[in-house]
Amino acid sequence: ANLDPLVCSEAEVDAKIAAHHDDIIQDADGDTKIQVEKSADEDKIRMDVKGVESFLLDDAGVLALAKQSRARAYQTSQQSIPASASTKVELNIEDYDEQAEFDHVTNFRFTAKKAGYYLVCGNVVLDGLADGKKYVIGAKKNGTDYVGLGRGITGGATWQSYTQTLRYSSVPRSLRRARWPRFTR
Fold this sequence. Notes:
By secondary structure, this protein is mainly beta. The chain has one helix spanning 10-19; strands at residues 24-26, 33-35, 45-49, 52-57, 63-65, 71-74, 87-88, 93-97, 102-103, 109-110, 118-127, 134-141, 145-153, 159-168, 179-184. It has two domains: 10-65, no CATH class; 71-184, Jelly Rolls, CATH 2.60.120. Helix content is 5%, strand content 42%. The radius of gyration is 27 Å and the shape is rod-shaped.
């Protein structure tokens, strides 16, 4: 290896030092980076991916992750559930859907874009059931894997309500054909 001596003026050295940022790690085109402080005394850590801020750890230790998979859907009116038939609940209104993964128009289904862990919560109110009737509330993952959420026998009450949490893990295209929920009474 050859080593050629280099002579720089003090102004050139100062300019090179000023151009080097110890508070930023970035890729070649600068659109993906980690910044320790965006401005003086900010005390925050930021990460940008493809020019979009996707991670922020603020000075209080609160972590914000942008563009995480999340959706909330609900029903606008009552839906009739026939006796002795599995019926998909038509969640036809989206409150939010960060990654456009919930179909509230055609299939009333959540389809995850990435494999991973998904927390699914739901609340169902059954009204007008005759006393002594059995019912089952459940969800399907990938169209076939049934997960029971609740079951019971009506008696005296005019409604029953169940709230459950499901966790799906590492399924390719995770909830590709998930139906939330189905009922049999």
